[in-house]
Each structure stands twice: as structure tokens, then as C-alpha cells.
Amino acid sequence: MANHGVLLALLLLLPLHCFSFSEENPTDRRILVLVDDLAIRSSHSIFFKSLETRGFDLDFKLSDDPKLTLQRYGHYLYDGLVLFSPSTQRFGGSVDMAAILDFVDAGHDLILAADSSASDLVRGIATECGVDFDEDPEAVVIDHTSYAVSETEGDHTLIASDSFINSNVILGDKKIEAPVLFQGIGHSLNSANSLVLKVLSASPSAYSANPKAKLSSPPSLTGSAISLVSVVQARNNARILISGSLALFSNRFLRSGVLKVGSSVKYEKSGNEQFVTEISKWVFHERGHLKAVNVKHNKAGEKSEPAIYRINDDLEYSLEIYEWSGTSWKPYIADDVQVQFYMMSPYVLKTLSNDQKGLYSTSFKVPDVYGVFQFKVEYQRLGYTSLSLAKQIPVRPFRHNEYERFIPAAFPYYGASFSTMAGFFIFTIVYLYNK
Q: Residue 88: which residues within 8 A CB-CB, separation 6 or more?
């Protein structure tokens, strides 16, 4: 009977291991999509189809499903979470704000889309991620000079924005030519959180207010300080996307043409599809995901890794860095990877040279200080997962039989000693035999 119980537990855990995050294949993952209404599955089908085409397994559930859970038997069932349920007041099952934040703390990715109906629960999750939506629940982003002209002319809440972050790793190498359509609520970034970045900003003429009411006081959010879409890369390399517009991902916005007020250029298609595709590639680690392998150090001229170094030894240090391209690992090429030889503070700081094939290396002399040192590589670059590598190694002084018998620098002292002895001998002879 006990054997049957063990077998049952293993069978239940097997799917969890199959869907767990793999460092060797970061994009072979399962994503939970929570929606207020299953109609979103068809109204946003282009975005979902792009994810499925790229190999993701999407599991759609209503946000109030009483059977909702993110983990079972201590293992997470999903590697990514998409919250397209802005008006949800309470999630079903065992999912709540704490469960979602624990999900991110465990290294998993999150996409959160809100709109003017955003609940306190959704706003609270965004706040915990370093983003503050406008406190006025009726407020939306309004722009009288950078709105889009469409069939519903005069709707100044339909924003056409092209204020993108300048980062190829986040938005891809191909420039997004057409403006992105946005209709929803704006947010600001928490100044205490250095990990959150604006990806899409409003124009200087935009402001956040209730479009149905007259302004009685200055808006709390104005101009380029309004972020429309933001991203966060946590210290554990989990990635978060927060959008103030659920419609930004919709088929209607992805297929719509754009004529921006004040511009004579009419785009047959908005930049939304390219924008959401490229930003989702970054969020789900299809781009900008680094790994370091084959970290080695050895004495110059040797191949084996020693257990201890001696002061003034010549040593060599190397590692290989690769970037995930979405389908395979490719060599990562950069000129700003550094290694520290560290004990309380860096005694040596060297920039690693690379062979354009992913191999980074350098050589240096061990400092004339003995103790317990560390080889440390702390690599952080905008849009890329951070690398934090440390390897401890002791450094010893010369043994008593390893010092030179006669140190050249001490020759003056040797000369002084012998001249003193010679002088004393001469003085003795003169003193004893001089009448």
C-alpha cells in the first residue's frame, strides 16, 4: 500500500518537472493566463497566437476559478503568469496578492495589464512591483496633441505614442516605425525602486484626469513623467511587464491604422503588434538571457585548478558567456565584463578580453598579500539578466625555504653589516698593537 502511495505521488509530480524552468531551454515553458471573461481569448488572439507559435503552452482560466493554484506539493505548475483581468476584486482558489508576489520572488515572470476598471487588488500588485497607478479611479491618460485620429474622431484618450526606451535588447533590433496605440490609465515609477524602467512614455502634452469632469486642480501625473508601459527585472532575474492598457494587446489595436494628429504620415498598421511581440520576447527570456559556464582559473602555463595560490604567482582566469536567442545559445559579445580579485575590497580589477566566440579571459599577478580571496564577476547591463559569480581561493605567503638567499634590495644592509665587522676588526688591531 505504501508503494502505491509513493508511485501516485511520483506520477503527480511528473508533469511539474516536465514544465519546470530549464536553464538549458528557457523558453520551453508553460504560462497561466487569467482573464475576467473568456472572450478575451478571441479578442486578443493575435497576441496569444504569437506566444503559442514561439513554443509556449498557454493555460486559460477565469480569474475567479475556485480551483486556481500556482503550485502543488511545493512545486510551481507554471513558469509565467499573464494577468488580463484588471477588474478582478479577488482571485479564486489559493491565488492572492501574496501568492503572485511569491511566484515572482521564486524567479517567475509576470505580465499585468490594467485599464480604467482596475481593481484595488491589481493596483496593489503593481505597487509592490514599483509602479503607482493614478490614485483617481476615474482617471485615464488624455492628450490633446498626440492622440490618434480614427473612426471615433475627437477621442483624446486614444493615445498614439512613439516614446520608446532606447534599448535593442528590450525592444529588438528592428526599429518600431509606427506609433503604439494606448487607451487606459497612466502610472508613475517609484523613485525608491531602481529596477523599474519606462518602456513606453506619454508625450509632454499628456496628463492623467477624469475625461468626464472639469479639472478643478492640477493633475497628479503630467507629461513624459507618465509611463504607459513599464518593465521590472528583479534581482533574481524574474521579469515583469506592467501596462496601463489591456486594449494595447487587443486585435483591434494590433490591426488598426494610425494617423497621429499633427503628422501627415498615415500608417496602415499600428506599432502595437511589433511592440507587444518584442516586449513579450524580453519578458519571457527569449532575449537578453545570459548564462556563464566553464569558469576556470589556473597558474600561468598550467591547466589544472590549484587549491591554493602563492603571493606573486602569475595566474589566468577565464569563463564563457552565452545568450539565449529564443531557439539556441549564441556567444555573447561585450567589452565590459570585468573580474575582481577580492578580499574585503578589490585588490585586482581586470577587464576580460573576448575571442568573439563567447570566451572571456585575462591574466594577472597575485597581490603581495596573503589571505582568503575571491574571484568575483558581477555583471549588470540594461536589459540583460545579471551574472553573479564568485569562487573562493586562499593565498599563502612564501614558505621559509622559498625565499631568495640573498635579496638584491638588501645588498646595502649586507654591505653595512660586513663593513661594521671589518671596521671593528681593524679598530681592535690598531688598539691592541699601537703604542
A: 34, 36, 63, 64, 119, 121, 122
